[in-house]
Amino acid sequence: MKYFLLLILIFTTSFSDIKILERSYAISYGIFSNLGISNAKLIVDTDNKTYVATIEAKTVGFANFLSNNRFEVYESKGEIVDGFFVPDRFRKFSATNSKSRESIYLFNHSKKSILLIKNRKSKNEKSSNSEEILEYYSNNDILSLFFNLKDILPTLNLNEEVEFIGVGNDKNKGITNILKLGDNRFKVYLNQPIFSSSRGELLIEQDFDGLCKTAILKDVLLFGDIVAK
Q: Hey, is 165 helix, strand or coil?
C-alpha cells in the first residue's frame, strides 16, 4: 500500500503545474565573513493562480550572540493576476531570546484598504495586540514588489529613479524608490536611515528566475557594505 501511495504522489506531482524556487544566502560584513544565513522560497501554482513567497533570515556565530539569537521571517501570499503577484496577506515576524514582534497585513483590494494586526510579546512585559487600517494603500507588499520587478524592470528607463509603494515599509508609508542599472540590476532606496546610509540603499542583482543573486547594503559603519550572496 505504501508503494501505491508513493506512486500516486509522484504521478500527481509530475502533472501538477507548481513551480518551487529556493535559494540560500551567506551574509558577510567586511572582515566578518559569517554573520548570517538567509533562505528564500517562491512557490507558484499556475493552475490555481496563487503564489507564496517566503524569506527567512537568522544570525550565526558572534553576530548571533550580539543579536540575542535574532530570527526574521517575511511572507507574502496571494493571487497571480495578469502575470503579476497581488498579495492577499503579508507577514513580518522577528524574534530574539527575550521578545518577538509580528505584523500581519490583510489586503482588501476592492476597498483599497489594508488592515494591520500587530502582536508584541516580551518576557519582562505584558503582551500587546492592536489593529489599525493603514493610512496608505498599495497592491504590492515589499516582497511581491521585489518579485514583480522581473517584469517591471524592462519597462523602466535606464538610470531613472521611479517611486513605488510596498506595504511593510511603514516608516515612510511604503514609499520605495527603484533605480534601474541594467537588465537585471537595480538600486533600491527604502527611504529611511539604515546605518550610515541616509536612504537605506540596496544594490540588487536578480537571476534568471527573478530571485536575488547578490544583495549589497551600502555604507554600513566602519567596515563598508553588508553583502548577501
A: strand
- Strands 212-220 and 113-122, how do they pair? unpaired
The sign of the CA dihedral 141, 144, 147, 151 is negative
CB atoms within 10 A of CB 24: 10
Q: Amino acid identity of 221?
A: L
Phi-psi category of residue 166: left, alpha or beta, with phi > 0 → left and psi -120 to 50 → alpha: beta
Which tens digit of pLDDT belongs to each residue from 175-184?
A: 888 989 877 8
Is residue 5 packed enough to be buried (19+ CB in 10 Å), middle (13-18) or exposed (0-12)? exposed
Closest CA to 51 of 86, 16, 24: 86
**197-224 pLDDT, tens per residue?**
667 777 788 777 777 777 777 555 444 5
